[in-house]
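1st attempt posting a full record on here, be nice pls
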Amino acid sequence: MTRKLAWIAMGGLFVGIACLVLAYFAGGRSGGFVPALTGRPCDMHADSAVTERHLAWPGGDTIEIAVPATVRYRRGSGSDVVVRGAGHFVERVALRGHTIVLACHPIGSPPEIEITLPGEAFDRINLSGSVRLFMESLDQPALAVNIAGSGSVQMQGRLEQLSLSVAGSGWARVADLDLQRLIVKLSGSGHVEASPREDAKIEIAGSADVRLLIRPKSLQSRIAGSGRVSQPPPDSAEKK
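the predicted structure (as tokens):
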């Protein structure tokens, strides 16, 4: 009996460790974050005339988004977090510190919510769930984006260095970005398209893939699983 209880305890310990490891990778290695959907199920029949809200941004170089929404950013445009959409969802979007959350659980189809971020420069952006982020007019030295889940990001503008971390099936299309250095860590089945001119450092665990549309001067890659990294052939630049 004692031996049986010991095996049960050991099994529970291993399960706990596995859960912690999964949470670690889902949250990214640099400051984990978790989905912030909270509260009761969203009231789909609530009658509200509120279709736009302005949430005062407290300032800071890091923002976390845990709302299944279309999110837009344009450098230098606006100072508030602006939420638009159906009233019963708009009223439930909240800003808790530096995290945008939905204070109810949507049932069925994803809510139709559009969020506009303040136009100040961010050093780090964390996306949790199915966030769709569009960034325009970027012009700064560095930016780090962490995606946990099926979220996506598209970027335009200029960055010296972009760090991307994707855990899950998320993807990033940043080929339109004037980019010097790219650092990518993918865990799962994510996808990245980019055009780094100088350096690219890529780590893949799983079936994720990275497509480089131009050949950087330096490429370092490490792959565990069926993932792949592709780039144009060496003579492609000479043929243009």
